[in-house]
Design goal:
By secondary structure, the protein is mostly helical. The chain has 13 helices and no strands.
Amino acid sequence: DKHGMSNTYINIGNVYDHLSAYAKSEEYILKGAQLKEELGDYYGVAGALNNLSIIYTRRYQAEKSIQTLEKVLKGYAKYMDPYLRSAVLGNLAEAYQAERKLGKALEAAKECLKIRLDLGDSTNASYSYITLANIEFDLKHYDAVIEYATHALKMSERMGILNHVWDAHVSLGEAYAAMRKPDKALYHYRAAMVLNDTLANNKANDAVHEMEARYESGRKEAEIAKLNDQKKIQELVLEKKEADISRQRWFILFGT
């Protein structure tokens, strides 16, 4: 049964991805995609290639991810439902961002968000807001970061999605620190610290404790501007982005 075999190949590829065996993952996903192409299951091909793009991004091959996802949008658009299209656009936005193609990243992320809001897919919409906040931060559009991250925070708090709450707080902390508003930056970093034990590692705690100590000693304005503090903040931001890599990709699962 080619249909069942194609799904099995893709799901094995997904397992290898979780094991960080990326070469094997790519091999099996491509086998599954080829079988689906032979069967005329073009929705399945699009889903398999979406999954493959995630492998490339995790291997720091964002350009290959972009090429794969653009191929999906050009060749298989009419076969995709809104859920798959939003997954492809969300992953494409991240790949564009990794390649510093920020205008294209913003466009893809906005289209992804619109689809998810139209679908009432609040869980993934909350993360789309975070993705937009991340891109706007790279563009130094800090007011936009605050707008998108606040949407994400309210939505994820309402649904109890704690990892999204953490991401939103860190995005807000980034933006307020960049705008030299240490009171607000520290508020959000402290909120992230409360969640940090279960959602991140202890390096973020150290960064927040150091900032808080300097804040309380009356040196907050001078200290937050020092390169060392900025490095600490960026370590927290990097942890957030690394957490994004492990959480935010939108895999398509296949039944047997």
